[in-house]
Design goal:
TIM Barrel, 8-stranded parallel beta barrel, 3-stranded antiparallel sheet, 12 helices, 20 strands, 31% helix
Length: 440
């Protein structure tokens, strides 16, 4: 095969891809891996692009084109792939999303048997420079063992709960899928009743496909009345609309020529493509439950049972409010288990999340030093943050997290929301807090 210039960089590519299925790189750990595709391309400057790609079993899918850009990033999405370097095309059977930078080899640890998974919640950002920081930040989070990154969904400013707005989550996660390697990407939570079932089914399925099946769909009913008014969705209908959305969207993901007849959404003989890569659908997390509503939202809630029934019926994972007290969480979980039995489900069918905003103080730092960071995102005050959020030195935070997890009766996921994009806070979490939590 003769050398041809790379269509993006202009660099000559003198060798075809070397594709060897099922091989193990000698530097990879001995955990359960494979099959692999080993991909190498020759360059005139002597550097090599090398990847070891873990491929989950997938059925054959449509051809998808994969290309290398200036950073020599490769993407493999599923089915029979056409891999392109410059003008050369090579067909391979592959699946899953892979990422590799020129001159490096990446190994992704198999964490399937770990009892506790660590997640990072994304904070707002809007500049091009910050997006570059996000990619570097999440790749470092991957290296430190974080399993997933999740984003909040708010269309408008929502004081006093939040003092900022947030990037639109589906667009954000789609962009981050292209600059991360293996970390899962999700919402916690997306306000589902504000969406249209057909449009959203296609939108999220596209995200799941582009991310290589790494998406987690966390949803909630929402609470901010102004957002619902702006979208012409009656605020009082949001719970029942949420139920119908979950039923309609999962039906559209599971089959073709689907009909649905609800009070708010109706369609006949409808097919939505593409389908999610994860079948029958991506994991569904549902947030909700008791919390100090009047203090956080300025609203009075007299009956939380409809929310808990929805969680019991539809959720793979329950996300309690971070501001819920121990008694609130315990009471909600008892009700959820009772409702699950009515739907023919067992408590073991559902996993649980502990989540919270966090700021790690270095030794000797005073809590007041965290005020500028908290007030960027929260409209509450220091006493509130100290009571309901995570603020303290490493050992203190680990003790608080262990206590909260115990209140849940154990949990499978811990979601922490650092208050800036600095590597320092990420490293403090990984080095000073989480090892102490893991020794629980």
């Amino acid at each position: 095969m003769t050398a041809r210039p790379n269509a993006v960089t202009g660099e000559e590519v003198s060798a075809p891809f070397v594709l060897a299925s099922g091989q193990r790189h000698p530097d990879l750990p001995s955990a359960s891996w494979g099959p692999f595709i080993r991909v190498a391309s020759g360059h005139t400057d002597g550097l090599m692009a090398l990847m070891e790609v873990r491929l989950p079993p997938l059925t054959a899918g449509p051809n998808l084109h994969v290309h290398a850009n200036e950073d020599e990033m490769f993407y493999v999405l599923g089915g029979v792939m056409t891999v392109q370097i410059g003008e050369e095309l090579h067909e391979i059977a592959a699946g899953g999303l892979a990422w590799g930078a020129r001159g490096t080899a990446h190994a992704y640890a198999n964490r399937a048997n770990e009892p506790l998974r660590l997640l990072i919640q994304l904070i707002p950002g809007g500049s091009e420079e910050l997006f570059a920081e996000m990619g570097a930040y999440l790749r470092r989070a991957e290296d430190l063992g974080f399993d997933c990154a999740v984003s909040i969904d708010h269309l408008l400013l929502t004081p006093p709960a939040y003092a900022c707005t947030w990037l639109e989550p589906v667009a954000l996660l789609s962009a981050l899928a292209g600059v991360t390697r293996a970390i899962k990407l999700g919402t916690m939570v997306l306000v589902l009743p504000l969406r249209n079932p057909a449009y959203f089914a296609k939108e999220w399925a596209t995200l799941d496909l582009l991310s290589g099946g790494r998406s987690i769909l966390g949803v909630g009913v929402g609470w901010h009345e102004e957002q619902f008014g702006l979208m012409w969705v009656p605020h009082k209908e949001r719970g029942r609309r949420m139920d119908e959305m979950l039923e309609a969207v999962t039906a559209l993901w599971a089959g073709d020529r689907v009909s649905y007849e609800g009070r708010y959404y109706r369609f006949r003989d409808l097919t939505i493509d593409p389908k999610p890569l994860q079948q029958p659908h991506p994991p569904i997390w549902i947030g909700g439950g008791s919390q100090p509503f009047e203090k956080v939202y300025g609203q009075t809630v007299t009956n939380i049972d409809p929310v808990l029934r929805r969680i019991a019926k539809y959720a793979k994972t329950w996300v309690p409010h971070s501001s819920a007290t121990a008694d609130m969480v315990k009471g909600d979980w008892e009700k959820i288990q009772r409702f699950m039995s009515e739907f023919g489900r067992k408590p073991g069918d559902m996993s649980k999340v502990y989540s919270n905003f966090v700021w790690v103080l270095k030794k000797g730092e005073k809590p007041e030093s965290a005020v500028p960071h908290f007030e960027t995102y929260s409209g509450m005050d220091l006493p509130y943050w100290r009571e309901f959020y995570l603020l303290g030195e490493g050992e203190e935070l680990a003790e608080k997290i262990r206590a909260k997890v115990a209140n849940l009766g154990g949990c499978e996921y811990i979601v922490l929301n650092p208050l800036d994009w600095s590597m320092e806070q990420l490293e403090l979490l990984a080095g000073e807090v989480l090892p102490r939590v893991a020794r629980r």
